[in-house]
Amino acid sequence: MVTQDGGYTALTMLRPQTKINTKLEALVDQLERYRPVLTGNPQLTVTGISMNSKAVHPGDLYVAVSGARHHGADYITQALDAGAVAVLTDDSGVARIPEGLAHLVVDDVRSALADAASVIYGNNISVTPSIYGVTGTNGKTTTTYFLNAILAALDYKTGLIGTIETRINGVAAPAEFTTPEAPELHSLVARMRETGVEATAMEVSSHAMDYRRAFGLRYHVAGFTNLTQDHLDLHGSMDDYFDAKALLFQPDRSASQVITINGGAEPQWGQRLAEQCPDAVTLDLGPAAVVDAGASNATWTITECEPAGLGHRFRLRHDSGFEVATKVGMPGKFNVANAALAAVMIFTGHPRHDWNRIAEVLANSQPAPFESAVPGRMEVISDEPTVIVDFAHNPDGLTQALAAVNRTKRSQGGQTARTILVFGATGDRDTAKRPLMGQIAAEHADVVIVTDDDPHYEDPAEIRKPVVEAARARANHLAHAPEVVEIAPRAAALSHAVQLATAQDIILAAGRGHETHQDLAGQRFAIDDREVLRQALAEYGFDTTRSGSSQGTD
Ligand SMILES: CC(=O)N[C@H]1[C@@H](OP(=O)(O)OP(=O)(O)OC[C@H]2O[C@@H](n3ccc(=O)[nH]c3=O)[C@H](O)[C@@H]2O)O[C@H](CO)[C@@H](O)[C@@H]1O[C@H](C)C(=O)N[C@@H](C)C(=O)N[C@H](CCC(=O)O)C(=O)O
Ligand SMILES: Nc1ncnc2c1ncn2[C@@H]1O[C@H](COP(=O)(O)OP(=O)(O)OP(=O)(O)O)[C@@H](O)[C@H]1O
């Protein structure tokens, strides 16, 4: 929310203006399946809920969960000082509850807190906005922006919940998580309802399903982009990662489901999900697929996909024969996949008699819904050299982004043009990704500059090491003999890329996209790849004003 002083109110402070008084005895009834045991006055009422002592409002139910670093029960005093009136916890927290404080003990506190938030903010009884929930390893943010653009073009009052920002009816607030914790999510949905939001596009991360953040809501349409390796630090295995995503597609969580059956480099996961959900609407990416999985009986198929400017024109066909043509402005065939999923989710969320109007919006609105740029997603900073900032931070994302960049390079006809890649791996996350990303970088780039992403609490040099080693090892076996260099800090690496570049080269700065801060041992350092690159371009005498570019990418 933009405040009167022009600053931002954190999402954790965002609450519906109308307070509902919920008696503890009513919560006991609603949470029955978690076998709640109430100690204290059943007539006591709560008006809000928080699982973070620093975000408690007067009248809140404070939820004390056991986490990886802390136990919320250690912060009960802080929560009481801020006005909490009762506590929800499980057996692990009960011993730390002060004498005389009303409390509920349940056996699955993370699931129970999402249901409690739904009750406390009235989302269980009222008509919430229609929520279009998107999950998958890559493409969630882009697909939700596309959904939002179509919904707005269809004249809905819209909301958006995701990695870059939260939007309520055109008003933006910064986002802390891809999917907020359940108390914030439910208060946000209630706030959207109050402000008249009719339809919301929402990213649903696998963390959100694993931690039950996104529970207690029924999604109007759930959409699946793809599944490839990421987040194995949390999920342990691809099977567990898949299971977390699949929760969203259960009929009690989503009214309709749309599954891309050949998204990303590992189409077997989309096919497996479709087998588990026989009533789901399916999407075959056809010529926009990375892996040709052969003929399918999908509900919707992309039948044509041609380069148009930096992006593509494409045609979608329903198995009834209904067709729609549209175009997407962002580079990369994967953005055709994201746009097609958004379109099919909108068709699925509407009755058939609305389809012609939706097709008209997709084909003819100016600007077209998929022409809009998404911050930090294949964002073009300059044309000569072509400088692109992207959020690719896992093996498939990096592969797809480099493939799109290399097609651009080829179509520009430059025999001598080089692809210069600047990227790093994230600390405290899936370490298995690091050598894979190093190999991919060497395979697809001519100059690989390995630097830092968010080191978090790890030593940045130790994070770079396996990336550099794998890139060099792979480079030794490649005919195009890519150069691999290691440069930190990140601003120096970006600047070095520009220093090396000729006007024909392409620079891809991958991994951080829209982000404006790096996390180093809990300290936030300001850095925006886009700004650093613009400054370096000016410093090295390049023109940073964008001309209307017309080269194709595929
Ligand atoms: C792995 C993960 O998701 N961890 C989340 C989890 O942490 P945790 O269980 O370890 O909690 P903890 O820090 O030990 O704290 C335990 C409890 O004490 C409370 N506490 C703690 C300190 C205090 O002063 N007061 C207080 O009340 C905390 O609010 C929490 O309820 O619960 C915390 C409380 O909400 C989250 O902050 C934390 O997110 C961490 C910071 C995080 O970075 N999560 C990322 C990885 C994440 O969720 N990412 C996904 C998307 C990923 C993607 O697709 O790329 C997302 O949806 O954003
Ligand atoms: N459909 C796709 N398939 C493969 N890669 C993609 C796809 N869409 C986007 N990407 C790549 O992944 C990056 C992240 O895209 P986006 O932010 O839309 O995904 P996300 O799922 O929201 O990611 P995160 O969960 O990390 O926020 C992009 O910058 C691009 O490089």
Major sheet description? 11 strands, mixed
Mean pLDDT: 92
Instruction: Detail the poorly predicted runs.
Output: 1-12, 548-554
Ligand kinds: ligand UAG, adenosine-5'-triphosphate
The CATH class designation of the largest domain is: Alpha Beta
CATH topology of the largest domain: UDP-N-acetylmuramoyl-L-alanine:D-glutamate ligase
Number of domains: 3
**Helix tally?**
17
The portion of residues forming beta strands comes to 15-25%
* CATH superfamily annotation of the largest domain: Mur-like, catalytic domain
User: Which structural class do you get from the secondary structure elements?
Assistant: alpha/beta
How much helix, percentage-wise, in residues? Answer: 25-40%
Query: Overall 3D geometry?
Result: globular
> Can you list the strand order of the major beta sheet?
11-10-9-12-8-13-14-15-16-17-18
The value of Rg in angstroms is 24 Å
Number of strands: 26
Going by CATH, the architecture of the largest domain would be 3-Layer(aba) Sandwich
Gap between N and C termini, in Å? 40 Å
Keywords: ATP-binding, Cell cycle, Cell division, Cell shape, Cell wall biogenesis/degradation, Cytoplasm, Ligase, Magnesium, Nucleotide-binding, Peptidoglycan synthesis
Binding site for UDP-N-acetyl-alpha-D-muramoyl-L-alanyl-D-glutamate: 53, 178-179, 205, 213
Cofactor: Mg(2+)
Subcellular location: Cytoplasm
